[in-house]
Amino acid sequence: MRISSSLAVGSPTARVTAILVTTLLVASLIVGAGVAGGRLLAADDTIVVDQAGDITSIAEAVALAQDGDTIVVMVGTYDESVAVAKDITIRGGGDRADVIVENSAELPPGAVDDVPGLPFAFRFEDATAALQNLTLRGESARIDIAGGAVTLSDLHLDGTGRVFDIDSNSSVPAGVDLEAGANVTITATVLDDAAIDVENGSIATVTKSEFNGGYIWMQGSDVSVDLVDNDFTDNPQWAAVSVQGGASARITDNDFIGGGTNIEVKDAGHGISDRGSVAEIVGNRFEGGTNGITADGGTAVDISGNRFVGMGGAAARVARPVSAAIRENTMEGGLGGITVSGDVDIDSNVVTGVDGVGLLISGGSPVLTENQVCDNGTNLLVADGATPDIQASNEICPDPVAE
Fold it and tell me: How many other C-beta atoms are found inside a 10 Å radius of the C-beta of residue 296?
């Protein structure tokens, strides 16, 4: 600030003027700090949640936040139920294992996923938001997403939600529930005994994540899911990936180790019979599960370029599809290879070392081209009534002669 030369340095007038200027400056800083302090504790539109600080809960920070803000949650365990309808980012500010969100409310016994009022840790409603670098622990620390576009990254879901019990035949509250046309990306996330449920017009992309005892379930003709480069280990007996009721899935470059059926594709779901589920299953690795891929009734599947090792049942089983192709897969060891019933294109597969039947045709008129089926317990078995077209380009070895 330029001061008039008529005000001599040290003069009473100069001193009064300086005091007034300083007072106004301090007052403006106090007012500014008061405005900012009501919302922000750090620069660059960042709100800090710290149990030893001024803002001690995530819900309080969300209430203060404006679109575009970032909430950084410092190390601690937070008992939270946070509704988010803003375009914000919530991020753990320390090691993921040390930033823990729980919800002490209990899921009621026998709860199903469409009952309103179930407890959650986070619910996003029509928000363009991100949740990053946190651990969500316990059944009720669930994530509900209704509409909007949400990114979940670097999370650990530890026993979050419930795992479907096949005996109950009902849809349970999952660790992550997508509904109302949500568009969600999930990446670099670990799901221990936790599931993802995709319904009601939602779209999901799941990449570079680990499912340990968990699964992803999708249903509905307006549902689409991409699964790319994930690891599924010891999934529940019924399925690691379930495509039902007309849903569409692209399942590529994933690893499936152990567990029950790894991928199932069905025309019907809970209360839905669409006869139009579609799955592109390409470039995956399966090892030691009960079944690799099963597709039943009214589905369209492309099973290509996968490797199956030591499966406990069929590597690929397809029955009565609308359309199906099983191409360029490798099946080694285990109890079963390819089982089909219906009009299926079976092309350029290698099936070897299977203790049971390498290629079982139980019905329909599949077309076999350039397959190699050798060194299995039984190489080819055609059931009565089946009418396969087995072209000369196949190499199907004679069955071994019993001694």
Answer: 17
What are phi and psi for residue 264, nearest 5 degrees? -125, 140
- Between CA 205 and CA 26 the distance in angstroms is 51
pTM across the whole model: 0.87
Please tell me the number of Cα atoms within 13 Å of 245 on its side-chain side. 15
Are 191 and 210 in contact by the 8 Å Cβ rule? The answer is: yes
pLDDT per residue over 227-252, tens digit each?
A: 999 999 998 777 999 999 899 999 99
- Rounded to 10 degrees, the C-alpha dihedral 194/198/202/206 comes to 50
Taking the chain (403 residues) in runs of 10, the rounded mean pLDDT of each run is 33 40 36 39 80 97 97 98 98 97 90 77 98 97 97 97 65 90 98 95 98 94 96 88 95 96 85 76 96 93 98 95 96 97 96 97 96 97 96 93 55
Q: How far is Cα 154 from Cα 79, in angstroms, rounded to an integer? A: 20
At 239, is the secondary structure helix, strand, or coil? coil
CB 114 within 8 A of CB 146: no
Q: Is 328 in contact with 369 (CB distance < 8 Å)?
A: no
What are the boundaries of each domain within the chain? Answer: 13-38, 265-403
Q: Tell me the backbone φ, ψ of residue 61, rounded to 5 degrees.
A: -65, -40
Q: Distance (Å, rounded) from C-alpha 275 to C-alpha 277? A: 6
Positive or negative, the Cα torsion across 267, 269, 273, 277? negative
Instruction: Name the burial class of residue 376, with classes exposed (0-12), middle (13-18) and buried (19+) by CB atoms within 10 angstroms of its CB.
Output: buried
pLDDT value at position 291? 95
Residue range 96-130, pLDDT digits in tens: 999 999 999 998 886 666 667 899 999 999 999 99
Q: How far apart are CA 79 and CA 105, in angstroms?
A: 9
How many C-alpha atoms does 298 have within 13 Å on its Cβ side? 17
User: Which tokens go with 218?
Assistant: 């999708």
